[in-house]
Write a structure and sequence with these properties.
The complex is a heterodimer of chains A (266) and B (330). With 266 residues, chain A is an alpha/beta fold. Chain A contains seven helices and 15 strands. In chain A, the strands form three sheets. Chain A has a nine-stranded mixed beta sheet, with helices on both faces. A two-stranded antiparallel ribbon of chain A has the order 2-5. The longest helix of chain A is centred in the N-terminal third of the chain and has 17 residues. Chain A is globular, with a radius of gyration of 22 Å. Chain B has 330 residues and is α/β, with parallel strands linked by helices. Chain B folds into two domains: 185 residues, HUPs (Rossmann fold), CATH 3.40.50.620; 123 residues, TPP-binding domain (Rossmann fold, 3-Layer(aba) Sandwich). The mean pLDDT of chain B is 95. Classes of the chains: A alpha/beta (266), B alpha/beta (330). At the A-B interface, helix 3, helix 4, strand 10, strand 11 and strand 14 of A face helix 4, strand 7, strand 9, strand 10 and strand 13 of B.
Chain lengths: 266, 330
């Protein structure tokens, strides 16, 4: 099974909230000092699902990312986990693309790579939390689309995709090639292997420009973006915490019960 | 026909779903501010009753499409129906609930209609000077709120987070127009098929309905520790939820997860035990009425999010908390 996994480089979402900074003027999040960007954790889980499929059925995994030349680290992360190769899509004209621009760019690269059975990405990116690029790629390429996959099985020119729903799950049969987004619940991604790390270090990651993949300049960048941020602000902490003062944890528990009773919480 | 604001309504067991009542509240406010009618699209079989309800709940024009019920429908089919309906009705604002179906078809519809799309909005408002629609949504895992505005002339699609507005109240005296809408959809638009749809039975109270939630995080340390939390929840007439860590560790099933990738709850009382207070979790519970934190680490972020806190080991705090609650209840 030949797979393409789209991944994004993001500021580390595990950064402590106290270190999270915003530049309100430019409406941008400032990269936290001393904490390097990471592969979007949701996409890392898509990679994990791709690797399980490769383990089960063989085939090839290509990792694709749009960003700057520095974004090659997330492609290399994928290769160190067991992917086969990857590309970085980078061009000044890509700057400030919205989800539709991003999907246009990724779709162009996917068509250039060709010969795929399955395209995967995470359910959303941990920065803007939209979760729309995967489905827009499916629309652009007229591919069958399934969201929030938990498990995938191959079945004669089709896939059996189990996906989570709010109250349970659904199983779909989907013809290939298909575009599938992967839910968080697939579980922890594997760690890079020793040989994978060496392979990734040696691998040359090609950088493709707009011209390399035949991007329509009218559909990318800030000019093509359908919306813009009017405001970006930190979420305010609306509450002020009263700490129960006590000599022992035992006493604190008792006092907490009394306090809860006092405010009518039970 | 040209409509301004169109709501994608969901029908559950012949009735307007609660999530749809919520966007009827949000949509009605927008419609009033803009001085425009509010339209509702309903898809289903024999849903005349729901259509009447949609008028009572604030809809001015309710369009009814005969189609399979949402629980059984392939998203491709619903997408095609909605896209076709939008071609006829040409709305400039289309609102979905951020549900399984809404989340799936909103961005695909935006791609087809060349509209903008904003997912998981918690507030919709009109900019007084320009009249532009402003859509607020949590970003960066709940660390920040972005307010999005679309380019003039662009149709705008948004999904609205459940529980971000109160459900609309029914006013049976409200008048509105109910009209059938005929859409022709090519059955080949459905790629593949639904083989199985399973609704998992919830044991006890649904998290979303619970008045009291006791939530455990990584600090619980293992599945055994949850016995104490379950005891407290049972005593207070509530239920137990978890953060991501207990799911990732396999201590508790994913159906119990509260947060960005789990459920959104807003109980009267939320007791977070051994929860660090990561924004990705807090985004799922921050609208709780009273938020209590029990954590060993005095610097844990949860203490910036809570109303009441106890710094201490939950294994020592909970037994006396439970005992005292019991005696106070008697």
């Amino acid at each position: 099974m030949n797979m393409i996994v789209c991944v994004k480089q993001v500021p580390d979402p595990e950064v402590p909230p106290a270190k999270f900074r915003i530049d309100a003027k430019t409406k941008q999040v400032m990269p936290p000092e001393g904490i390097p960007p990471v592969i979007n954790p949701f996409d890392e889980r898509a990679l994990e699902l791709a690797l399980r499929l490769k383990d089960a059925y063989g085939g090839k995994i290509t990792v694709l990312t749009m960003g700057s030349a520095k974004s090659e680290s997330v492609v290399k992360r994928g290769i160190s986990m067991g992917a086969d190769d990857g590309f970085v899509l980078s061009d000044p004209s890509f700057q400030d693309s919205d989800s539709f621009g991003t999907a246009h760019i990724l779709a162009a690269a996917i068509q250039k790579i060709g010969n795929y059975d399955l395209i995967l990405c995470g359910r959303q990116a941990s920065d803007w939390d939209e979760g729309v690029v995967g489905s827009i790629i499916a629309e652009n390429l007229s591919l069958p689309f399934i969201a929030l996959a938990l498990a995938i099985e191959a079945a004669d020119k089709a896939l059996k995709v189990k996906r989570v729903t709010t109250d349970g799950y659904q199983v779909f049969s989907v013809p290939v090639p298909a575009m599938v987004t992967v839910c968080w619940d697939v579980g922890r991604p594997r760690l890079p292997s020793g040989s994978g790390v060496i392979m990734a270090a040696r691998k040359k990651i090609p950088v493709w420009s707009a011209a390399d993949i035949g991007v329509d300049a009218g559909q990318v960048g800030k000019g093509a973006a359908r919306k813009e941020a009017a405001e970006l602000s930190r979420r305010e902490w609306a509450r002020k915490c009263e700490i129960i003062q006590a000599e022992t944890p035992d006493e604190a528990g008792t006092k907490l019960a009394e306090k809860l009773r006092e405010v009518g919480a039970f | 026909m040209s409509e301004k604001i169109l709501i994608f309504g969901e029908v559950a067991e012949g009735k307007v779903a609660t999530v749809t009542k919520e966007i009827l509240t949000a949509g009605r406010e927008l419609a009033n501010q803009m001085g425009e009618p509010l339209s509702v699209l309903l898809i289903g079989e024999n849903i005349e009753g729901a259509a009447k309800d949609a008028v009572s709940l604030g809809g001015d024009n309710v369009y009814v499409v005969n189609g399979p019920p949402i629980a059984k429908a392939h998203p491709d089919l619903y997408l095609a129906i909605v896209a076709e309906a939008c071609k006829q009705l040409t709305p400039s604002i289309i609102l979905f609930s951020h549900t399984d179906m809404g989340r799936e078809i909103a961005p695909r519809l935006a791609a087809r209609l060349k509209a903008s799309v904003t997912m998981d909005c918690i507030k919709l408002s009109i900019e007084p000077n320009s009249g532009a629609l402003l859509l607020s949504k949590p970003v960066y895992g709940g660390n920040a709120i972005a307010v999005w505005t679309s380019k003039p002339g662009t149709a705008q699609i948004a999904t609205v987070r459940p529980r971000s507005a109160a459900p609309a109240e029914s006013d049976p005296s409200r008048q509105g127009k109910i009209a059938p809408l005929t859409v022709s959809v090519d059955p080949s638009c459905v790629k593949g098929e639904v083989l199985e749809t399973v609704v998992e039975e919830v044991q006890g109270i649904r998290l979303e309905d619970a008045k009291v939630v006791v939530a455990g995080g990584g600090g619980i340390g293992g599945v055994e520790g949850f016995t104490l939390l379950e005891g407290l929840a049972a005593l207070l007439g509530g239920t137990v939820g978890v953060t991501r860590v207990p799911c990732d560790e396999g201590w508790k099933p994913l159906s119990m997860e509260i947060g960005q990738t789990g459920r959104i709850v807003s109980p009267n009382l939320y007791i977070a035990v051994g929860v660090s207070g990561a924004p990705q979790h807090m985004t799922g519970c921050s609208s709780s009425k009273l938020l209590v934190a029990i954590n060993r680490d005095p610097d844990a972020n949860i203490f910036r999010e809570a109303d009441l806190g106890v710094v201490g080991d939950y294994k020592k705090v909970l037994p006396s908390l439970i005992e005292r609650c019991k005696s106070l209840k008697m």
